[in-house]
Model the fold of this input.
Amino acid sequence: MSLTGKTVSSTYKSLLRVNDDTNGVDGTLEVVTDGEGTHSIMHLSDDEFKVQPKNNNSNNAFTATNTSGDRLIQVDAANNHVRINQGLQIANTAMKQFMLTSVNGSPATGNTWTMLDATCGGRFNAAPIEMGTGGTPATTYTNTAQAMNLVQSVWFVPFNIAISACNVWFGQDDASGDVVKFSVMSYAIVADNGSNGGNLSDGTEVCVSPSTITGAGNEQAYYQALTVSSANVDSGRAIVACVHQDGTNSDLTINMQLIYHTR
Done:
């Protein structure tokens, strides 16, 4: 719409201005208002541009699109996220992998939780750590001459994260299989060089198999999307992934992906 031929008195409400009648645009951020003083989401100076909602934190505080209108950037002020690309994934989405290989001969004990490898093949682990026979892995672990295997099995979380998904593939190495399920745990970990270094406590399950998987053997691979039961994990905690198998008919190869973003 053009302002040609129109008076200021009939159009001033549609005009945008910075909220400084003396200096206009200068080095100070000022809110951009319309002609009658209603605040917009925009703030402007000669070197900065800021978007700050006035009334409500919406999912679309700021968006950028291509010529077709597809969103490429979305600032979600309601959830404190920035989403990018046509899939609108959270911008700092990342993936942590956990694994186990059948060459380890694991799980070695039926009806027992076994830690997965968090380093993804850094060294051959002949004796993965076992975490009990309960409904979930044990909520504590005290190291007893297993430090080399413990270090291989924990992910020390360096920043606050939120888990968005956890997916796992596994294969069995024998013609007959077992019933399998998975759990991902978050622990407080003693992070010092004393005699208790690496000990785990305050275990909380953060991802869990929605059901058990009955493996028929090595004729097929198996996949499961775990349920995220507690998404937020604070920095300085340790994440441990475990597998439970009701027997030892087959050794397992496991490839687990934990999808997360910083918060």
The mean pLDDT is 91. The chain is about 5% helix and 40% strand. The longest strand covers residues 161-172. Residues 41 and 54 are 6 Å apart (CA to CA).
